[in-house]
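Last lecture ended with a question: if I hand you only a sequence, what can you say about the shape of the protein? Today we answer it with a concrete record. The protein is Mitochondrial fission process protein 1. Below, first the input exactly as provided, then the predicted structure, then a couple of comments.
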Amino acid sequence: YANKVGESFPVLVPVSVVRLSYAVATEYVVADSMDKGYLKNRLWIKKTKYRQVGIATADTLIWQGLAAVAIPEFTINRICWATQHALANMKFLPHPVKIWGVVAAGLGSIPFIIHPIDRGTDWLLDNTVRKYYGSS
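The predicted structure:
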């Protein structure tokens, strides 16, 4: 969740900190993909083929890249942007309330966006690339 939390704080931290959260999330995606390939490779001795190892690794990389990094980052970024612009028009609110309102909107959206993004990513992959290689 590093990238999701990082994307919720654009009004409080430098852009470099937000980008660092992307790096942490990307490292997780790569590590998880390698782990899935490694686990599939351990089974290779008995019943899998190299193609299945590659499919497991690639499928995890694509799924995690979309569902854990790209789509949530974009979604939270847009939620924070919209909140920031909405609060900017509320002249009666003090500046700290506006700033923390953006952060609260970003963080508060996380529990609500995760499951729809996961299900949407499953649907997307099931109806595109997984048709070509079969899910593994």
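Comments.
1. The chain has a mean pLDDT of 84.
2. The CA atoms of residues 117 and 123 lie 10 Å apart.
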